[in-house]
Structure formats: structure tokens, C-alpha cells
Give the backbone structure.
Amino acid sequence: MEVNVYNIKGEDTGRKITLNESIFGIEPNDHAIYLDVKQFMANQRQGTHKSKERSEISGSTRKIGRQKGGGGARRGDMNSPLLVGGGRVFGPKPRDYYFKLNKKVKNLARKSALAYKAQNNAVVVVEDFSFEAPKTKDFIAMTKKLKVSDKKLLMILPEANKNVYLSARNVKGANVQTISGLNTYRVLDAGVVVFAESALSAIDNILM
């Protein structure tokens, strides 16, 4: 599959670049995508949730009712889970939600996500570029000329570029990533994926 290469003015350079069929042309694996997105979302969780158990409630330990003859359960003190304001039984505790995912599965998931974008003609390739200074209006102007300003945008660069990152930081729906930080969730979440030309050339080293 070939796509045109554009410059930041939105002009066709007359060159084409061939997308790697072993990445963009595969049959997407939905289950691999599910697992990778699930792991990504799990890793975003702080896991700091906590409720107090009976022994942690601040309250009197005096027995509030007699043992028998009350017509109900033996409730003990005010910290009983049976009473309003008492401790919680088997409540949430701080935990880490991380789980392991094999590298081959993660690579398959990323390839599958990119394959979906290629099938939907949502892959754009632009010549390598940089900004002389961080300017949001320059980034917005570029997206308009590339006709992607109305879509949720993921831009993939070959390496970190502070000026481009800062220029896109305040643009709603725009996200800038390096090729090494490519992940399935970001690709699927974007309406269009814009690759810098050299990032697309380096993708084989990342996913193959």
C-alpha cells in the first residue's frame, strides 16, 4: 500500500512511500488489541482506594446491646459493619493493577491498530519538520493545511522534539508521540495518525 508524502504546507511532494505490508497490511487481531488496551488502562490506575475495616474505625468498643433477647443479631460495639458508620467488610485495599503481557502480543496489538487505520485511510505521511520556536498557531496551521484539524490527531515523530511538543500541547484533540512510545490505545483513540517520514521508516525496528 502506497501513500503520498506531504509537506507541512499540505502540498503533495510528488513522492510516495510504501507502507510495510507486514505491519499495515495484516489481518487485525482484536483479542491482542483488547489485552494491550486493558493493560494500558490498568497501568493508569493509581490503586490508592481504601475503606476502613472494623478495627480501624474510631469509636467506642462498649457492647451496645445484651447478648440475647433483643430479637436480632448480636451486634457488639458501634464499629460493627451492621450499623451505619461501622466498618466495611472486605472493602477495597491499595493494590497494583499491573499484569504482564508478552512482547509479541503487544507488537501484534500495535500492528493490528495500525492496520485498522490503514484500512480506513487514516494514515498521513508528512516530510520531517521542526518549528523554530514553540508556536501553537504554527501547529494549528499545519493541521489545517493537511486537512486533519477536524479530527482527533496522533502525530508520530522519529525522536523527541520539544518545539513541536509544546506547540501541540494546548491543541484540543492533538497528541504528539515518539515512534518508540507508540502504543495501541493512542493509535485507536486517534481519528487520524500522522507520521513524520523518518518515523515511518524506523517503524520496522520497533515492531519487527
About this structure: The beta strands are 2-6, 12-18, 123-126, 153-157, 174-178, 192-196. The CA atoms of residues 19 and 185 lie 21 Å apart.
